[in-house]
Known about the structure:
This protein is mostly helical and 117 residues long.
Amino acid sequence: MATSAMQVVLTGEVLDEDSEITLLQLCHSCSVTAETVEALVEHGILEPAGRRGRHWCFAAPSIRRVLVAQRLQRDLGVNLAGAALALDLLERIARLEAALGQGGSGQAGHQPQPSEP
Length: 117
């Protein structure tokens, strides 16, 4: 009996922080509708560049913001205003940790000293 193996090939594009994506690309990447993106813009979760509608462009980190907002809504029942606040606070924490050189693991340059007897 012959066995068949299914091979899945994934393709993608690596985006840096400065990359821009179109409304269509954002919708496709996050599996959302343009109406959903418009609601996210209205609540301050996303900041588009360009003319309204199909001509909007978004910074690459917008993908993460959409996905986190969706997760907050789905898993915690947070409304869009709450998701906007949570996202802003999470980004503020990340900036403060980066400024302190932490990245989430202790204070920058601070090595624990052995206690003296």
